[in-house]
């Protein structure tokens, strides 16, 4: 039997129905619990209802099982939030962490870098909110600068070089400001001049497995992403191939960032089997932890 728990964690409690039968005879119910990973207080409760034997079921007794799961005393029903709502504990951890490190940021901007679809906008908004910073998306600022023309149209009408110049100009202007979280364009890392501007703040690389990026991007379509767009063929496979090529060209550039947030590392820490159920809040917490690590390295341990 496999029970699906909020956040995609899977447990497989093994149940010895014979033992249940011996204890409760031919009817009634029994409850028992297993504790997984004690420190996380993940609890699985299994209630078993034995059906009395019928003429047709003389070899097997029927056991109907109800499984309920809780995590840190929150029932699974609450945790299965749908969308991106953070479980209460995550929100509290995020708030505490942001309050801890905010004074040490000294108002410096946070630049999120990473491949298309890596969640820079989604996570950036969470970070800006909790830090009380303003949020900007550099692609949106370029679009506004070209009279509301979309990035895809800018590529088509004026070419990539024109877009890159605009992007650099946007980053230059942002570098004069404070208390911003900036979601940068996926290719902003390739121009060294852009790093000169981003180094005024703290840069954070959202490192997401390419398969997950391809899945996310294929789900919404490639229309708004000119470097990935294709008119035909399997969207997932084509996107993955293209992302792999771009990643080969860019991985060293992304690694220039002051801090790296690896979704695979977060999933491993939280005991998730893959990264697809990590909430933006969990990712934002890791971003703040990595920023904290960078600040400590930069200034020596500041007593946290
Ligand atoms: N943690 C997450 N888990 C699953 N899907 C996510 C997660 N974060 C973002 N997404 C989804 O991935 C897609 C891309 O997210 P988002 O726009 O935040 O990325 P981005 O890095 O800003 O992309 P781009 O640079 O292409 O604008 C969106 O559809 C978003 O809902
Ligand atoms: O990875 C890239 O090169 C790009 C990413 C997007 O954010 C946009 O900046 C544009 O589509 C180019």
From TrEMBL:
GO BP terms, alphabetized: amino acid biosynthetic process; aromatic amino acid family biosynthetic process; shikimate metabolic process
Enzyme class: transferase
InterPro entries, per database record: P-loop_NTPase (IPR027417), Shikimate/glucono_kinase (IPR031322), Shikimate_kinase/TSH1 (IPR000623), Shikimate_kinase_CS (IPR023000)
Entry's EC annotation: 2.7.1.71
Ranges that cross the membrane: none
Pathway stated in the Swiss-Prot or TrEMBL entry: Metabolic intermediate biosynthesis; chorismate biosynthesis; chorismate from D-erythrose 4-phosphate and phosphoenolpyruvate: step 5/7
Signal peptide region: none
Cellular localization per UniProt: Plastid, Chloroplast
Alphabetized UniProt keyword annotations: Amino-acid biosynthesis, Aromatic amino acid biosynthesis, ATP-binding, Chloroplast, Kinase, Magnesium, Metal-binding, Nucleotide-binding, Plastid, Transferase, Transit peptide
Gene Ontology cellular component annotations, sorted alphabetically: chloroplast; cytosol
Catalytic activities: shikimate + ATP = 3-phosphoshikimate + ADP + H(+)
UniProt keyword Transmembrane helix present: no
Keyword set includes Nucleotide-binding: yes
Pfam families reported in the protein's UniProt record: SKI (PF01202)
Molecular-function annotations in GO: ATP binding; metal ion binding; shikimate kinase activity
Cofactors named for this entry: Mg(2+)
UniProt similarity note: Belongs to the shikimate kinase family.
Functional description taken from the UniProt entry: Catalyzes the specific phosphorylation of the 3-hydroxyl group of shikimic acid using ATP as a cosubstrate.
Name of the protein described by the UniProt record: shikimate kinase
Species in which this protein is naturally found: Quercus rubra
């Amino acid at each position: 039997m496999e029970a699906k728990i909020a956040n995609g964690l899977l447990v497989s409690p093994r149940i010895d129905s014979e033992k249940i039968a011996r204890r409760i005879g031919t009817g009634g119910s029994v409850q028992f619990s297993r504790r997984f990973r004690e420190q996380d207080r993940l609890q699985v409760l299994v209630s078993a209802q034995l059906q009395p034997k019928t003429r047709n079921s003389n070899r097997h007794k029927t056991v109907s099982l109800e499984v309920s799961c809780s995590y840190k005393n929150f029932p699974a029903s609450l945790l299965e939030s749908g969308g991106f709502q953070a479980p209460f504990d995550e929100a509290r951890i995020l708030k505490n962490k942001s309050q801890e490190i905010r004074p040490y940021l000294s108002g410096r901007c946070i630049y999120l870098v990473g491949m298309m679809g890596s969640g820079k906008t989604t996570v950036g908004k969470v970070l800006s909110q909790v830090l009380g910073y303003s949020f900007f998306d550099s692609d949106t600022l370029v679009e506004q600068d070209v009279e509301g023309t979309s990035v895809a149209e800018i590529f088509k009408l004026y070419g990539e070089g024109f877009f890159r110049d605009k992007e650099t100009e946007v980053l230059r202007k942002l570098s004069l400001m404070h208390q911003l979280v900036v979601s940068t364009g996926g290719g902003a890392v390739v121009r060294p001049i852009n790093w000169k501007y981003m180094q005024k703040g703290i840069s954070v690389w959202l490192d997401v497995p390419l398969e997950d990026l391809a899945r996310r991007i294929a789900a919404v379509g490639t229309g708004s992403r000119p470097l990935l767009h294709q008119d035909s063929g399997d969207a997932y496979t084509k996107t993955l191939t293209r992302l792999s090529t771009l990643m080969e060209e860019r991985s060293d550039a992304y690694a220039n960032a002051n801090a790296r947030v690896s979704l695979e590392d977060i999933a491993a820490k939280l005991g998730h089997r893959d990264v697809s159920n990590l909430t933006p809040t969990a990712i934002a917490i890791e971003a703040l932890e990595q920023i904290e690590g960078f600040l400590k390295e930069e200034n020596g341990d500041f007593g946290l």
